[in-house]
Amino acid sequence: MPDDKDKMDKDHIDEAALTRWMEAHVAGFQGPLTLEKFAGGQSNPTYRVDSPGGAYVLRRKPFGPLLPSAHAVDREYRLIAGLHPTGFPVAKPYGLCGDDSVIGAAFYVMEMVEGRTFWNGAIPEAANNAERTALYEAMVDTLADLHKVDYQGAGLGDYGKPGNYFERQVGRWTKQYRGSQTDDLPAMEKLIAYLPASLPEQKRTAIVHGDFRIDNMIFDSQSPRVLAVLDWELSTLGDPMADLAYLMMNWVTPADGRAGLSGLDLDALGIPPMQAMIERYAARTGLDDVPDMNWYFAFNLFRLAGIVQGIKKRVIDGNASNDKAAEMAAKVPFLADSAWHFAKAAGAAD
Predict the structure, then answer these.
(1) Distances from the Cα of 210 to the Cαs of 134, 182, 216, in angstroms?
(2) Can you say whether the dihedral through the CA atoms of 195, 211, 223, 94 is positive or negative?
(3) Can you give the pTM of this predicted structure?
(4) Which of 228, 303, 255, 282 is nearest to 59 (CA)?
(5) In Å, what is the CA distance from 271 to each residue of 14, 129, 134, 274?
(6) Is the pLDDT of residue 266 over 80?
(7) Whole-angstrom Cα distance, residue 80 to residue 74?
(8) Cis bond leading into 333, ω under 30°?
(9) Which residues are CB-neighbours of 332 under 8 A, at least 6 positions away?
(10) What is the pLDDT of residues 67-111, one digit of tens each?
(11) How far is 281 from 283, CA to CA, in rounded Å?
């Protein structure tokens, strides 16, 4: 196993080289700088950069060989650079470096947004129920505002592929599952047959975040206002119902100290019920025909089962590095069965 020095070397950034680059490309920057890596499981390592002139965030590709389309920090940078001038809450972008020779990998630098991050959907840190209500309303309002952004005007008209978003997604995750399949799961086979045969009509196209949840937002420290939405790695142009349904999944996901809310007494906490959140989103976007959520919940759980199946295959092959990978891998049958439960609620024949 690698020792601590090996781990440090894998994360080492040449601070002198980074300082020179920032002095040349980031307006107002003054060295020297210090770096602190943020904890977490981001596939693109992220650092806080402190300097006499202020704080920044650096987000880079992993070091070493990568698949051509993986860890596309240039794509993330393009997205936030397009969104920032619209007034949508993202960190201000300062510069993109595609030259691997500077620090060993492509990276970008953006504003360090100071505020509150909540990891638990129950928001135990909230002062009172009224604050929890306001935080959830701010979250769904921010999602609605994202979906109203004029992506053509923001220079993002080619940010995603045309056509039915869910058709592409179902195909992608079916392929991913097949590529890492280790067991015969009847529920997954039923989903693979049902989902492409029951695709919802795509009526709108918008910027889709892909991972819109409470811990991917920074809130103002004194108010329930969203200051920045983070982690745009899965963003694209697509059906905004994907984001809405992904957020609403929290209401049917068991509460376990993360984003899930099912099993909590929402009234006692001041957290709005799911239907109220959907109605608020619809009113803010002008959506007058909100479809049933069950198909979208089935898709989201199917996608998650495909992701976790990939982890399971890496555990079996001995390539999984996360200590909890084996525990996660055991969840594939549960996820598949849960997805099929919602598919049946959407009209699938058992």
Answers:
(1) 23, 27, 11
(2) negative
(3) 0.88
(4) 228
(5) 46, 7, 9, 9
(6) yes
(7) 10
(8) no
(9) 183, 185, 305, 308, 309, 312
(10) 445 557 899 999 999 999 999 999 999 999 999 999 999 999 999
(11) 6
